[in-house]
Amino acid sequence: MYYPPSGVYNDSYAKDLIIVRTRFQWVMLILCVCLILALPFFATDYILRVTIDIFIVLIAVHGINIVTGYAGQITLGQGAFWVLAGYISGIMSQQLHLNFWLALLISIIGTVIVGVIFALPSAKVKEMYLALVTLAAHFIIIWACLYIPGIFGLIWGATGLYLTPPSFAGLVFDSTFKYYYLALGFSVLMTFIAKSIARSGLGRAFVAIRDNDKAAEASGINIVYYKLVAFAICSAYAAIAGTLSAYYMGWISTEAKTLMDTVWMVGMVIVGGIGTTIGPIFGVVSLLLMRQGVLLASPAIESFLADLGLGGIGSGGGVLILAFGLVILLFLIFEPRGMAHRWTIWKSSVRLWPFAY
User: Fold this and answer.
1) What's the pLDDT tens digit per position in 52-78?
2) How far apart are CA 11 and CA 47, in angstroms?
3) pLDDT band at 156, cuts 50/70/90?
4) CA triplet 152, 157, 163: central angle to 5 degrees?
5) What is the mean pLDDT of residues 274-278?
6) Contact 146/234 with Cβ under 8 angstroms?
7) Do residues 20 and 195 lie in contact, with contact meaning Cβ atoms separated by under 8 Å?
8) Are β-strands 161-162 and 251-252 bridged in parallel, bridged antiparallel, or unpaired?
């Protein structure tokens, strides 16, 4: 629960809806915005690529957080919808020669339709069984992207599709520097939309279903409808992330996002703080930076293991999976509400200092 600083009161509904409340918060927000906008001017190409990856993955993780954190439904198909959206946008771009924006719109519509179809069993099943349904959706979608093109005599199923850089008003996003701002814009927009959904009547309906679906139904909430809406929103977020990733990489295939990548995204929601808007931000940044740190330290880790007579175990993938598992386990045991809860406690302790929280 968030408590506003001393002297700040919610004496009207308008004030209760305000996100940035104090002068200090405005100053910190402006400084953060300036830093993010100026980053491409002094950061290396490697840092920009990692940051773009954070922006794109954050969009998909927001989708998982909406369907899992707010609506209480489990999904393991986000990676498959990511790939499906990339293929749809690639077909629209390369086969039908549509521009980026039309390809993005069609990929969102197509991915949402498929997502809703696979979400229909959510009206009858929940928890582990729903996880199995979304897991089945992952394998079915990946199989369809691989083999259906071959059935119709097309060659881009297994080999993938190449995409040209997107453009807007004559500006072609053909460099890391330019694409940074495109990914940043979409990331900020989708974060704002996620926050707005959480604070709306739609978000309150999701939370009611998550907390007690029987009580929500007795209160007049159409739980089947709202579950389908949650999965549709999650699929739309996956479509935007998948399209942005496909155009950024200039190529899409079924290897773009694997089932393990989906597990990573679910882990980001858990680590960051499930059911909060800032949680996915914490989770994506922390776990992606941890991944990069482990990969950069792989040569040293391999050398250390070789000195211990354990060479051949593998350093990059093995240690990375081990670190991921330990992080998830520790958060589930010691901080199940994630980094967002710890952030709230820290802010309160700073405001109340030097008094104990």
Assistant:
1) 999 999 999 999 999 999 998 888 989
2) 44
3) low
4) 120
5) 91
6) no
7) no
8) antiparallel
Q: Which token pair is 286? A: 């922390």
First-last CA distance in the chain: 14
- Provide the 3-class DSSP secondary structure of residue 118: helix
Report the b/e string of 95-109 with b at 16+ CB within 10 A.
eeebebeebbebbbe
Neighbours of 274 (CB within 10 A): 23
C-beta of residue 87 within 8 angstroms of C-beta of residue 256: no
Residue 251 φ/ψ, nearest 5 degrees: -165, 145
Rounded Cα distance between 32 and 28, Å, is 6
Q: What is the mean pLDDT of residues 189-193?
A: 94
Residue pointed to by tokens 């990856």: 53
Helix, strand, coil in percent for the chain, rounding step 5: 75, 0, 25
Tens digit of each residue's pLDDT (9 = 90 or more) over 293-318: 888 887 777 777 677 666 555 555 57
Q: Give φ, ψ of 22 to 5 degrees.
A: -110, 170
Determine the Cα–Cα distance for residues 271 and 333; give it in Å rounded to an integer: 11
Residues near 81 by beta carbon (within 8 Å), at least 6 away in sequence: 111, 114, 115, 141, 234, 235, 238, 239, 242
Single pTM value for the model: 0.90
Three-state DSSP class for residue 269: helix
242-261 exposure pattern, b = at least 16 Cβ within 10 A, e = fewer? bbbbbbbeebbbbebbeeeb
Query: Could you give the CA distance from residue 214 to residue 217 in angstroms, rounded to a whole number?
Result: 5
Cβ count within 10 A of residue 3: 10
Q: Is the pLDDT of residue 1 over 60?
A: no
What rounded mean pLDDT belongs to the chain? 85
Mean of the pLDDT values across residues 111-117? Answer: 93
pLDDT of residue 329: 92
Residue type, 11: D
Q: Residue ranges of the alpha helices (H) in 92-175?
A: 100-119, 128-151, 156-159
Q: What is the pLDDT of residue 173?
A: 87
**Residue showing tokens 């259906």:** 148
- pLDDT tens for residues 193-243? 999 999 888 999 999 999 988 898 888 899 989 999 999 999 999 999 999
